[in-house]
Design goal:
The chain is mainly α. It contains ten helices and three strands, in the order E-E-E-H-H-H-H-H-H-H-H-H-H. A three-stranded antiparallel β-sheet has the order 1-2-3. One of its GO terms (cellular component) is early endosome membrane.
Length: 237
């Protein structure tokens, strides 16, 4: 189902924090966020990403425009002039960030908005697309896979970001020659069958064509997909 009731119960944890020093950036603390689905079964694909204080602050400020009432229920960690790297400040911020993320996870409108989508995937997608342009497919795979899993947890199975990431993951694995791409392609085709969004449907015919090509490359039966694609073309879709 693609309605909002199919959103999953999530647990957000700041599992670690490390101080980063580089020539490009001033010294800062990178917080590792783990996102897991909470149910009877253990989540076999927890998503992990690193964000710094300014990333959380930018998201908080973006959300305040539309969700000020909801955000007023939690205290967001304040900027400090000194002491950013003290264990006390880092520990306090971890607690504050978890409360902030829990609020996002428990509020459907916030969870599915553009600012949250960007926070959880934009940096990794940009890095992955650079690698893909350089034909470094193996290096891009874990980034794209993580983007898929984090959005698949945050949003519904047929949400645009989820389907786009699934198609990208399938293509990158396909380019690497891994036969697992056939299984991902099958999953993408099944999920697209319930889609009515015209913006998303423009991906469907290219998806079918790519899936047929992958099936043939890995000696799988493509006949039902060929028939389905030809039927769509005859109907002018």
């Amino acid at each position: 189902s693609d309605d909002m009731t199919s959103l999953k119960n999530l647990k957000f944890e700041i599992v670690s924090a490390r101080t980063v020093e580089s020539r490009k950036h001033k010294k800062y603390v990178a917080y590792t966020v783990m996102v897991r689905v909470m149910d009877e079964m253990e989540d076999s694909h927890p998503a992990v990403l690193e964000r710094r204080y300014n990333d959380f602050l930018s998201l908080y400020n973006a959300l305040r425009k539309d969700f000020a009432i909801q955000l007023s229920t939690i205290p967001f960690p304040k900027k400090t002039i000194v002491g950013n790297f003290s264990p006390e400040v880092i520990s306090s911020r971890c607690t504050g960030f978890e409360a902030f993320l829990d609020l996002i996870g428990s509020t459907t409108q916030i969870r599915c908005c553009e600012a949250v989508t960007s926070f959880f995937q934009e940096r990794e997608l940009i890095d992955a697309l650079k690698l893909i342009r350089d034909k470094q497919y193996y290096q891009a795979i874990p980034l794209v896979e993580n983007c898929f899993w984090v959005m698949n947890k945050l949003q519904t199975d047929r949400a645009p970001a989820v389907l786009r990431n699934l198609c990208l993951w399938m293509c990158v694995i396909g380019e690497s020659g891994d036969p697992c791409a056939v299984g991902l392609a099958g999953l993408a085709v099944r999920r697209f069958q319930g889609v009515s969004d015209s913006e998303l449907l423009r991906y469907y015919v290219p998806l079918l064509s790519t899936t047929i090509e992958l099936c043939r490359r890995h000696e799988k039966d493509a006949a039902p997909l060929v028939e389905h694609l030809e039927s769509m073309i005859r109907r002018g879709i």
